[in-house]
Design a protein that fits this description.
Strand content: 35-45%
Strand order of the largest sheet: 1-2
Number of strands: 4
Distance between the termini: 26 Å
Helix content: under 10%
Radius of gyration: 13 Å
Amino acid sequence: MLATKVSGGLTTMERPVYAYPLQARYDGTGDPNVAANWKPAHGPRGRDVAVRN
């Protein structure tokens, strides 16, 4: 799934959306506004993301 931000009729940002517990993490190369430069990863420091209520 892909999330996009549109401003003035132009796509200004794209991010992939992954199923929990994965999240999109910028791979450090290329334009951070392009979805291809984001990869699936577990939560912070490689651990699953904890749900807090």
